[in-house]
User: Fold this.
Amino acid sequence: MLVYGHYDVQPTGDLAEWHTPPFELVVDGDVLRGRGVTDDKGPVLLVLEMARAMLDERGELPLNVKFLLEGEEEIGSPNLPAYVHGHAAELAADLVISADGAMWRPTEPSISIASKGLVALDVIVTGAAGDLHSGRYGGTVANPVHALATILAGLHRPDGAVAVAGFHDGVPELSAQRRAELDAVPFDEEEYRAGVGVPELFGEAGYGTLARLWERPTLEINGITAGGKYTVIPHRAVGHLSCRLVGQQAPDRVVAAISAPVATQAVPGVRVEVRADPGRVPAYRIEPDHPAVTAAREALAEVYPDAEVLLAVIAGTLPATTLFESALGAKTLFFSFATADEKHHAPNEFLRIARIGEGMRAWAALWDRLAKGIAR
Assistant:
């Protein structure tokens, strides 16, 4: 087995929003707080401690285990592909188990059988040679922020569906069976709405909230960089976009589908450029009847005997999964004891203390089951 995780973290964000020092581990009732405690230092540490405890107790592990812990996951793992390809023989494994990935929610144990792909790009609109006084030059030149707003508004239909031709190539139709499976998942839309703090939920017509979250691709405007609260016409405006991919969407084709119409859009008085980030990740999936998934469900059922184990989808992206499949020929099983609501990437990140003991017991049970399966 190759156990994967990462120890790098996101920036703190606004320090004023933290209730505890972000880089000090703080026990706060039944949770631990600190940047990286749940993404991904805590989930990695509990596996290492479980292995140490198992060695102390038994004198050996039931499997041959390798660890690959990286420090660049939060910036897209730019050096990991070259490393994995260059050390493929050393890293060879029958299965990769990821300590990263997070369970969907705290109310029941879950295993994610898919994660979304990712591409990111900037739309750069340039007007004058420099910022201009909005009184002296207003009404005589194009405003790049106005132009960018027009471009970005055209990326979606009024119902929230992506309006880019070719964007949905490779997206599978949602079958009646899959819709029925999603409908069977206990999910309270009002509770979800209240939890994220919006007045109402919104998204692509024809799909429920869970279907949009797990099964549909997205194109999000993550931010706009331009000007400020002072009276100028900015000479440059940049829209930061990211797309989460599903099915067989090809990242390069998605970039091309967005770039061509945006870059050639007739917006008078400005120049438009699309610049894609180099890291591009396709969607990933492990079949629900894969032996590793079966073993993981049994291990979780042992630790949580009164709860049904849910098969979920990670709406985010874990770049290493498709890399391991292509370079090592090994599937990745998500087996994390973080939970998606634990403020990953946000101020006041936390990890439930109970998950540490539960996770150690579950990892031990998983390894034992996998070893027995291999022995057969």
Observations:
- The first helix runs from residue 37 to 58.
- Residues 2-115+283-375 form a domain with the Aminopeptidase fold (CATH 3.40.630.10).
